[in-house]
C-alpha cells in the first residue's frame, strides 16, 4: 500500500496540473474565456455562466488538497479518495486536450472513465463510516466530489452531443435533433431528482443539474428546447427546495445529526 503522504503530495501535484491546464485553455479561448463553451457548440449547450461551476469545483478542490493534511481527513483520503483523484485530474486534462483538438469520440470515452472514477469516490463517501464529521469534511471533501459528480454528467452530455449531433447554426434544429435534446433534458432532470430522492439529499449535485437546465433555457432559442429546459429546471428547483425542507425537519426532529461546528 502506498504511503499516505505520497498520495497526498501527488494529489497536490495533480490538482496544480489540472488547474494549470484549465487556466491555460481559458486564456487561449476567446469570448467567454471557456474552452468548454467556445468549442463544439450544439443545440444543448448551456449559456457561458453555467461553466462557473467548474471554477467553484476548482476552489473547493483547492481546499481539499490543503485539508487532506489534517488528521481528521486522513482516513477518507487514504481509504476512499486514494489514487482516484490523481486519475481523475489526469483524465480530465486528457479529455480537455481531446476536446480542443476535435477528437470527440475519444473525448466521450475518456469522460466515461472519469465518470467511473468520480462515481467510485462519490458513492463510497455516502457510506455511514465516511459521513462528514465536521464542516470541513462537508465543505472540502463531500461538496467538491458531489459537485464534480454532477458536473461530469453535464460534460458527458455535452461531449456526446458534440460527437454525434450537428453543430449549432443560425438555422433551427431538425426534428430528430429536437427529440434527442428533449430526451437528454429529461435525463438530466431525472438525475437532479435522483440526487434529492436517492436517500442522501445531495443538494449540491442537484443544484448543478438545475443550474445547467437554466443555462440551456437561456442559451437555446428553439421554442421546444427553450421552454422544456425552463419547465424541467423549475421542477428540479422544486425538488431542491423539498430536499432542503426535509433536511431542516430532520435536524429539528433529531433524526439528522447536524455537523459538528
Automatic annotation (TrEMBL):
This protein is called 21957_t:CDS:1
Q: Which residues cross the membrane?
A: 5-27, 47-69, 76-97, 103-125, 145-164, 176-196, 203-218, 224-248
Record bears the keyword Transmembrane helix: yes
Q: Which PANTHER family match?
A: SI:CH211-161H7.5-RELATED, XK-RELATED PROTEIN
For this UniProt record, the keywords arranged alphabetically read as follows: Membrane, Transmembrane, Transmembrane helix
Cell inner membrane is among the record's keywords: no
Q: What is the lineage of its organism?
A: Eukaryota, Fungi, Fungi incertae sedis, Mucoromycota, Glomeromycotina
Amino acid at each position: 500500500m502506498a504511503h499516505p503522504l505520497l498520495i497526498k503530495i501527488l494529489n497536490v501535484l495533480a490538482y496544480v496540473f489540472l488547474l494549470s491546464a484549465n487556466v491555460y485553455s481559458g486564456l487561449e479561448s476567446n469570448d467567454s474565456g471557456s474552452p468548454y463553451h467556445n468549442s463544439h457548440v450544439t443545440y444543448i449547450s448551456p449559456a457561458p455562466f453555467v461553466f462557473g461551476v467548474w471554477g467553484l469545483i476548482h476552489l473547493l478542490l483547492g481546499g481539499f488538497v490543503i485539508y487532506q493534511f489534517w488528521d481528521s481527513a486522513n482516513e477518507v483520503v487514504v481509504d476512499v479518495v486514494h489514487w482516484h483523484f490523481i486519475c481523475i485530474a489526469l483524465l480530465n486534462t486528457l479529455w480537455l486536450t481531446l476536446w480542443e483538438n476535435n477528437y470527440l469520440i475519444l473525448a466521450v470515452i475518456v469522460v466515461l472513465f472519469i465518470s467511473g472514477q468520480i462515481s467510485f469516490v462519490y458513492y463510497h463517501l455516502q457510506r455511514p463510516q465516511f459521513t462528514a464529521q465536521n464542516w470541513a469534511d462537508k465543505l472540502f471533501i463531500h461538496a467538491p466530489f458531489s459537485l464534480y459528480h454532477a458536473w461530469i454528467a453535464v460534460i458527458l452530455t455535452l461531449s456526446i452531443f458534440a460527437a454525434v449531433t450537428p453543430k449549432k447554426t443560425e438555422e433551427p434544429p431538425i426534428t430528430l435533433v429536437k427529440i434527442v435534446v428533449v430526451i437528454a433534458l429529461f435525463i438530466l432532470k431525472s438525475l437532479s431528482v435522483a440526487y434529492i430522492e436517492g436517500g442522501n439529499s445531495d443538494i449540491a449535485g442537484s443544484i448543478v443539474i438545475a443550474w445547467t437546465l437554466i443555462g440551456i433555457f437561456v442559451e437555446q432559442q428553439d421554442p421546444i428546447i427553450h421552454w422544456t429546459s425552463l419547465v424541467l429546471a423549475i421542477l428540479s428547483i422544486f425538488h431542491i427546495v423539498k430536499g432542503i425542507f426535509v433536511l431542516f425537519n430532520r435536524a429539528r426532529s433529531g433524526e439528522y445529526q447536524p455537523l459538528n461546528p
